[in-house]
Recover the amino acids of this structure.
């Protein structure tokens, strides 16, 4: 009986850990509205602050200017994690979509993190956002 209880306990423990470390796509973390008309990006790095506006305020049927950003984000491979420690020397991007805060991208070179809806994700395939 003790062996059966130990086996059941180990199976339950293994099943509860199965969700940890799961890699998800950016699309599972944030969905851009269709159509995405405008993306505002605030960039901060080592005392530099820049603002970018991608897209126009008026919808254009053939406008693809925001498509590069949505494609980039949807291709990110993310894993939920604890809030990362603050560091110096990183590049931080704040993305607002159609006037609403969407997510933050913290680029630390070989590592990066996304903060969306008060959850943190480590980026498994970091790359700089296509904002210029």
């Amino acid at each position: 009986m003790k062996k059966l209880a130990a086996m059941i306990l180990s199976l339950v423990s293994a099943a509860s850990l199965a969700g940890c470390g799961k890699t998800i796509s950016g699309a599972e973390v944030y969905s851009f509205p269709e159509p995405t008309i405008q993306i505002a990006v605030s960039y901060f790095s080592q005392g530099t602050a820049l603002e970018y506006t991608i897209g126009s305020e008026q919808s254009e049927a053939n406008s693809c200017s925001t498509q590069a950003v949505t494609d980039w984000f949807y291709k990110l491979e993310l894993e939920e994690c604890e809030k990362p420690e603050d560091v110096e020397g990183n590049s931080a991007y704040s993305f607002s979509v159609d006037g609403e805060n969407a997510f933050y991208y913290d680029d630390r070179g070989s590592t990066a993190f996304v903060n969306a809806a008060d959850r943190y994700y480590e980026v498994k395939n970091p790359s700089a956002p296509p904002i210029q």
